[in-house]
Amino acid sequence: MIIAVDFDGTIVEHAYPAIGKPIPFAIDVLKRLQNECHHQLILWTVREGELLDQAVEYCRQRGLEFYAVNKNYPEEVWDDTTPRKLTADMWIDDRNLGGLPDWGVIYEMIHNRWTYEEYVRQIQSDKSET
User: Disulfide: which of 10, 46, 62, 114 matches 6 by Cβ 3.0-4.6 Å?
Assistant: First the structure.
């Protein structure tokens, strides 16, 4: 899958324009999704210019490299006539309806290809077995 990932509020806590504290397990889960599951990750953020460079470098220093940043593929060229619309299978963003799930939940759902409803059913099933 191609997964678009927000930065502020998703990988790090909101402190824009500064880089906030790391959100626990965000980087680890994203690296697992790349390495174990072979998903392509795109950093999709409002950051531009130097602020964007800082976010990319923050992730890079922690071993997370993105397939592309604010575009569909690395060679894509944006101009004033190009809409900033991604072709992705999934978006991970703190502004989702219902907010950002725990990164463990995100991993389980993507790894097992569960919808939110399937995840809830699995949790309920696990609880009824105990």
Answer: 10
Phi, psi (5° rounding) for residue 124?
-65, -40
What is the phi/psi pair of residue 22, to 5°? -65, 140
Block residue for tokens 């609880």:
127
The two three-digit tokens of residue 50, written as one number: 């130097």
Task: For residue range 73-82, list pLDDT tens digits in order.
Answer: 888 887 777 6
Kindly state the tokens that stand for 8.
């502020």
- Tokens linked to 104: 């463990």
DSSP state of 68: E
Element (H, E) at 101: none
With a CB cutoff of 8 Å and minimum separation 6, the contacts of 103 are 23, 24, 25, 26, 28, 29
